[in-house]
What we know:
Elements: E1 3-12, H1 16-32, E2 37-42, H2 54-57, E3 64-73, H3 76-88, E4 107-112
Amino acid sequence: MAFFNIYVAAVPKANKQAFIDHATQVATVFKEKGALDYLENWGVDVPADDVTSFSKAVNKAEDEDIIVGWVKWPSKQVADAAWPDIMQDPFMQPDTNAMPFDGKRMIFGGFETVVEA
Length: 117
């Protein structure tokens, strides 16, 4: 059954193209390591709420937009096996290729598919 890594982050609006360029390269790394799909989505209609919201979850600033991304794997086992290789890939090293946003405010998790229609 498919397994997904899903994440939400706030990216400075001024870094949109840098984010797209970075994500395009990251996608290549993930696909080389066995990911079936790699998607990044730039928020264009993301409501804020007083109690909870994507914006609150990642402590979004006024000059930032929300991104949501996910990586589809054939299984959790394939994802778990790929992560050590992904994190050792030269492109993924923060000292040589920093993310164009604050990764400390990213939220993420792994999810198994329970319904696919």
